[in-house]
Design a protein that fits this description.
Blueprint (H helix, E strand, L loop, with lengths): L1 H14 L2 H8 L26 H4 L33 H23 L9 H8 L6 H18 L11 H11 L2 H14 L4 E8 L2 E8 L10 E7 L6 H4 L3 H12 L2 H9 L2
Antiparallel strand pairs: 1-2, 1-3
Helix pairs in contact: 1-2, 2-11, 4-6, 5-6, 8-10
The protein binds manganese (III) ion.
Manganese (III) ion binds next to helix 4.
């Protein structure tokens, strides 16, 4: 019964969003295998559904679905074993269940009793970016946001090529899909140490970016369309040190182009 209740709540959340409506229409939304709809410091037996307009002020904020501080860990948009064999359930158990959860717990403890309570993650990110005195808040807020965006950037049976307006824009700004693919893979492979590679929209143009550690395009006036996490914790269980194999699997089998198209469409 509880699983059904959570599933209904998730559908209600998503039904209030542009991206969510498309996901629901495509039948792409699964009941998460790990029910982290509420954070572990709250009573799991009494999930509360915030009003949709409180959760999602703008359509492109919807993918992260975390509401305002203090934050809950947003549910995975698929079962924990749904990305196997490209990303294993064991990787997601740690990456989502430990790392992402850890960032949520940390940001909640850092903003407790501060003026950041009641703010959205992206607001906190933008207000703390570049401020050395707020580095811990920025790092944990950005990692909480980046990971939520990353889970949505993948889908079981993903990969392939984009379609529609986003496909045309990729052809226009990169020449063709393969140029985009090669540039994205190159950025992901060459990000030194921990970080992220991104497809972003800036001043009307699609661009490839890479960011170090927790840094995020949100802090630089860019609109994220798609991302891949290249911290070692994202791939070491499944690929050991073979980051390029992980990147290839992401591009060929996991990319959620529907999610990317929705982000682009909401720009
Ligand atoms: Mn990570």
């Amino acid at each position: 019964m509880e699983n059904n209740a959570v599933a209904v709540n998730r559908r209600q959340f998503l039904a209030g969003t542009v991206a969510g409506t498309a996901l629901l229409a495509a039948g792409a939304v699964c009941v998460p295998s790990v029910l982290h709809a509420v954070s572990d410091n709250k009573a799991a037996a009494t999930p509360v559904t915030p009003p949709v307009d409180l959760l999602y002020k703008t359509p492109w904020r919807s993918p992260v679905g975390s509401g305002t501080a203090p934050f809950d860990l947003p549910p995975l948009p698929y079962a924990q074993d749904a990305l196997a064999p490209y990303i294993s359930a064991e990787t997601l158990e740690f990456h989502y269940g430990k790392h992402h959860q850890g960032y949520i717990k940390k940001i909640n403890s850092l903003v407790e009793n501060t003026g950041f309570v009641g703010k959205f993650l992206d607001e906190i990110i933008k207000e703390t970016a570049g401020n050395p005195d707020k580095a811990a808040i920025f790092n944990n807020a950005a990692q909480a946001w980046n990971h939520a965006f990353f889970w949505q950037s993948m889908t079981p049976g993903g990969g392939g090529t984009p379609s529609g307006d986003l496909a045309k824009k990729i052809e226009s700004d990169f020449g063709n899909y393969n140029n985009f693919k090669n540039a994205f893979a190159e950025a992901a492979a060459t990000q030194f140490g921990s970080g992220w590679a991104w497809l972003v929209l800036e001043n009307g143009s699609l661009k490839i970016e890479k960011t170090a550690n927790a840094d995020t395009p949100l802090a630089h006036g860019q609109m994220p369309i798609l991302t891949i996490d290249v911290w070692e914790h994202a791939y070491y269980i499944d690929y050991r040190n073979r980051r390029t194999d992980y990147i290839a699997a992401y591009l060929d089998h996991l990319v959620n182009w529907r999610f990317a198209a929705n982000n682009f469409g909401n720009s």
